[in-house]
Write a structure and sequence with these properties.
Layout lengths: L5 E5 L13 H18 L8 E5 L6 H8 L6 E5 L11 H15 L1 H4 L3 E6 L7 H13 L4 E3 L7 E5 H6 L2
Parallel strand pairs: 1-2, 1-4, 2-3
Antiparallel strand pairs: 4-6, 5-6
């Protein structure tokens, strides 16, 4: 079965955005922990791909170096300049911009029928189940899955559906 890529969105440096929590170093550790978890449960040998899209211009070298040691996961890193985003418009607005940029720039997402988007700092421990269910749903002609009880933590989208709303 084809696997949907997992899109993790990230803003390691909050650049003073209202409502943002934790220091940059704490946030980096949280993203690293989530990436390490997903690397362990979504191995490339099983056909899983992870796209890590970051929008604060944070240097991702330390994250890449730690993950290179495992070589277990297929991770595509996208690092965007903060100049592409407007923190005065809030987190939701910039999250959608980041998703749009990831769709445009990610080879993995462009070559897939859809993708699953998760918030980057908090791992979803049964992610394989959700990826399998989302893939089945999308391949059967659907286009969108989300968890209403946690509206921003997990989404599966058909790529053409997202492009149609731009």
């Amino acid at each position: 079965m084809n696997k949907l890529p997992l899109l993790m969105t990230a803003s390691i440096s909050t650049r003073g955005m209202n409502g943002a929590c934790f220091t940059n170093q704490e946030r980096e550790r949280m993203y690293m922990g989530a990436l390490q978890y997903y690397s362990s449960v979504l191995p490339k040998k099983d056909g899983f791909k992870i796209v890590f899209a970051e929008n604060s211009g944070w240097d991702l070298t330390s994250i890449k170096n730690i993950l290179r040691k495992t070589e277990n996961a297929d991770i595509e890193f996208i690092s965007l300049s903060p100049a592409c985003f407007d923190i005065s418009k809030g987190k939701g607005y910039n999250e959608l911009l980041l998703i749009n940029h990831a769709i445009e720039l990610s080879t993995c997402i462009r070559n897939s029928i859809g993708f699953m988007k998760v918030t980057g700092r908090y791992p979803i421990y049964n992610i394989r189940y959700f990826l399998d269910q989302a893939c089945n749903f999308i391949l059967e002609g659907g286009g969108f899955i989300h968890r209403p009880e946690r509206p921003s933590s997990l989404r599966a989208l058909r790529t053409e559906l997202v492009r149609s709303f731009r």
